[in-house]
Amino acid sequence: MLSLLVLAGVFASAAAKPCVGFDANWGLYVFGRDHDVSLGPVGGWSANPVGTSTLTRTGRPPFDGPNTQCFFSQYQNSLYVLNADTTQPSNIHIFSFDAQAWSTQKVSADGTDPNSLLAILDRNTNVFFALSNSQLYSLDMASLTQSDGGTRGWQFVQAPAFAQNNAYPKPVMALAENHIHFLNVGKPATADIFVIHFSYMQPEQQVFAPIEDGGAGAPSTTGHTASIFKGVDAVQTKFAFVPDDGAATWVFDVISNTTQTLKGPTDKSTLMIAASQREIVQMTTSGDVYWMPYNPEDAQANYGANWSRIALNLTTPTPATGNSSSQPSSGPTSSGAATTTTTGAPSGSRLSAVLHSGVAALGLSLTGLWILF
């Protein structure tokens, strides 16, 4: 039994993922490394090492889920973390930036698969939308800054045509102006769009033309997205997209239906990205953090922007794998999220599930371990 528990630990640690996120004052936070820290606003990020404040671990998830995703709730000044604990995969962990405290909101799966669903949080309504098993679901978070002590549940919304029959198994979700944009659904420089306030999927794809003469549109591929925030009185109108190959950073403008092509990350191994009003931040699969300035008023200035590494004096106990929290290991890939999770001693049934899924996912790469047992 001991050897089985060790093997289960190998599978769990291989999926561990840290995350980055902003608070309402655009201070940057890093979660899921050897300790969680606040880095403050951009003015202090050039120090070597950067100054940090350590956060509480009370109630903190262990960041061990296979599909951890993190989302900033701007009006609530809180971070919502999905699938951050393998012992309670459907529950959502909430970190209140005001209270500097964690709590756990109970959530029933209601037909969703928390280990593979692709989610995004609507800033205006504070409602999650998620693709799971080719169906679109919603989850109302009301104005939660901490658990309400009850249980919330996912609600079926519709079955998007592009998600049926496994036609596009790995869409990428992005959100701006209360519209969900589904990238990687067949054509470069296009998106399927769901209008949140009318619960309406537009029948025609939207084309996003590059603003550069002769420029290339954003590719139809898996990757990572983050909404570029504005003040609380203005809706988001832009989002950033970094494909898995890190070839470039595309900024989508949903008002002009255009894209701007900026420099790709220095380190191509993106785990997730996040954005404030004027900074785009990348976390790599090794837990390193890079950032690039973004000027929402001056497109020309953005062409000279470079990615810079933040000198964190942290270690990542268990390196993250290539899939991002916004990119589940199975099922659709997600956008603009971060990852967190809680772990405990596995029960017999959970251990069986871990072993079964681990064998399928890792296969021959762990042949040497089988010999040990």
Topology:
Elements: H1 2-14, E1 19-22, E2 28-31, E3 37-40, E4 53-54, E5 69-73, E6 78-82, E7 92-96, E8 101-108, E9 118-122, E10 127-132, E11 135-140, E12 151-153, E13 155-158, E14 172-176, E15 179-183, E16 190-195, E17 200-201, E18 206-207, E19 209-210, E20 223-228, E21 238-243, E22 248-253, E23 258-263, E24 270-275, E25 279-284, E26 289-293, H2 299-302, E27 308-310, H3 348-362, H4 367-372
Parallel strand pairs: 8-12, 19-23
Antiparallel strand pairs: 1-2, 2-3, 3-4, 5-6, 6-7, 7-8, 9-10, 10-11, 11-13, 14-15, 15-16, 16-17, 16-18, 20-21, 21-22, 22-23, 24-25, 25-26, 26-27
If you had to describe this structure to a student in words, what would you say it looks like?
The longest helix has 15 residues, at 348-362. The chain has a single domain, classed as Kelch-type beta propeller (Neuraminidase), CATH 2.120.10.80. The chain is mainly beta and 373 residues long. It has a 5-stranded mixed β-sheet, with no helix packed on it. It has 4 helices and 27 strands. It has helices at residues 2-14, 299-302, 348-362, 367-372, and strands at residues 19-22, 28-31, 37-40, 53-54, 69-73, 78-82, 92-96, 101-108, 118-122, 127-132, 135-140, 151-153, 155-158, 172-176, 179-183, 190-195, 200-201, 206-207, 209-210, 223-228, 238-243, 248-253, 258-263, 270-275, 279-284, 289-293, 308-310. 10% of the residues lie in helices and 34% in strands. β25 (279-284) and β26 form a beta hairpin.
